[in-house]
Design a protein that fits this description.
The protein has 86 residues and is mainly α. The protein contains four helices and no strands.
């Protein structure tokens, strides 16, 4: 996935769109590419549905944190904090 904090250029989205079109053209013409994608990108290309486990390929820290919240032994109550001013 493109990094939104990328400092390639000011108009980096044009470069990502361009390389996406090149990769799409290569796929349509059945050309071999020396590039690798995450399994979730392959699933999107094939039209398969993504699930929660696919988040691990994109952002492992986010997946680990959300997965911890789903565990039955996790103490989610400690996340409920209040911020107040007296």
């Amino acid at each position: 996935m493109p990094n939104p904090r990328s400092v390639v250029q000011l108009d980096y989205e044009k470069y990502f769109r361009f390389i996406g079109r090149i990769i799409g053209k290569a796929i349509m013409e059945k050309c071999m590419l020396e590039c690798y994608f995450t399994p979730s990108v392959y699933k999107m290309i094939l039209g398969q549905t993504l699930n929660f486990k696919d988040l691990q390929d994109i952002d492992n820290h986010l997946y680990t944190g959300l997965n911890w919240c789903l565990l039955p032994e996790s103490d989610v109550e400690m996340l409920y904090e209040t911020f107040s001013i007296d």
